[in-house]
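Cross-check.
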Amino acid sequence: MHRYRSHTCGELRAADVDTDVRLSGWLHNRRDLGGILFIDLRDHHGLVQLVARPGTAANEALSHLTKETVVRVDGKVMSRGADNVNPELSTGEIEIEVTEVEVLGGAEQIPFTINADDGVNEERRLEYRFLDLRRERMHRNIMLRSAVISAIRQKMTAQGFNELATPILSATSPEGARDFLVPSRLHAGKFYALPQAPQQFKQLLMIAGFDRYFQIAPCFRDEDARADRSPGEFYQLDMEMSFVEQEDVFQVIEKVMTELFEEFGNGRHVTSPFPRIPFREAMLKYGSDKPDLRAKLELVDVSAVFADSGFKAFAGKHVRALAVPDTAGQSRKFFDGLGEYAVEQGAKGLAWVRVGEGGELAGPIAKFLTEEDVKALTEALGLVPGHAVFFGAGEFDEVSKIMGAVRVEAAKRAGHFEENVFRFCWIVDFPMFEKDEETGKIEFSHNPFSMPQGGLEALNTMDPLDILAWQYDIVCNGTELSSGAIRNHEPEVMYRAFEIAGYSNEDVEREFGGMLRAFKFGAPPHGGIAPGVDRIVMLLADEPNIRETIAFPLNGNAQDLLMGAPSEVDESRLKELHLSLRKPQPAKPAK
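Predicted model, tokenized:
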């Protein structure tokens, strides 16, 4: 028999009754029923019940061991009997009567419960992440992640893509976030940067003629944590294709995502094909460029209705309305609750009316609306009895943010929200440039390496704020999975696009010299995208926080509480790297 096990803890069944077996694993739980010990033994593969009779050496050994001790046990497979079957366990028809026990790894008193969710805080969990990962939910999430990555590789290879690695140590690049810098020992005063994404290298692979590339790429960005963003590092399905247009990229990714979410979505429906929604339309209808299409409600711009209105609260402002059908049975609590929610999102309040049986409007602002206002709103929103209408007024971006959130919340509370479904969409036609509100400077709004729609002619003849780019986002259930683009592969277009954003030719050559040089030696049209693996797994696992899908994440303050990173280094190491530290001075106390 094998030194440690003849079987795993999850594979024994009724057909194995009367078999002598050897198992190894962790003591998951222990129950003493009149001197008979019942032990749950756990390994990677599952759970099995052990029985140790009173007066046996096995009973004596197991009664004194702490939970999470690693043991080897020998014993015989016994039937539990029909009345004692545990249907929740794959091994629930049998148990192991233990004859011999060997301790393989002792365990101290554990700092939190493994076999139940005892509400321990995240900092404690991350400090003892190796224990946290033993929990069933966390173990399941990490194994789901492994299976998803394996499936992605298979699906991309099946579509003719080649998995190629790109460098981790590279040059700094302005891609919208802070780089992590690595000091050079051999080149004093110079730094490598960890890649925010393999953007330039994957484009260079296309120029080198590899046609279809992908990798499960590690990316590094020194940015703050959010529920859907892990600080420090993350992984993405990075891909690029040559001789393609936007729809070619969409077809590849739609196939991968549809198959992936059908395979691992536990029966949740995947809507396909994915609708294409222009950016400006998304902002108007949904208040967001990451719309949750499970909410079956849309916003409508009714600014024109109130442009010359006597209702001063709305006059001259951007006004968005949300019509919610079938609210006749809703109490005042429904309306007040949505108003409180809007305030939580930053609103000062939430104006509303409801449509009565005769088409008349009632509610806090109904008395301020003229007959013309009511008629115009009825036509614009298709109002019928039972509708409620919520309004947001102010600046476009502010109204979009608040009413976009209200749209989803109202749909959930009023029963117009789809459950158990993955609703994908593509957001397309992003503006190439935007204006900085503080400086008035024109800058790139998305990816600076994107091809403008209309090419060089558009850059030379159009208002920069009217130029659209061949840029796109893929969104699922209100979560952005990735941005992508058809790339700019023409030097003249690159120079001109960066000139509009305030870069000289010399700036472009200094920052992107390798890429620019490659463009001058025959670059094919190409494009790609990079859906986030962590976010994909987060959606499939139905987890609200991305850190629940990563084995060893940093905490919200970008710290590794288990390994103690970031950490200080001694003076000799700093000297070797030609570095000296300038730590921030403590604030002086107020006089």
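The CA atoms of residues 328 and 386 lie 5 Å apart. The longest strand covers residues 20-33. Passed to J.P. for a second look.
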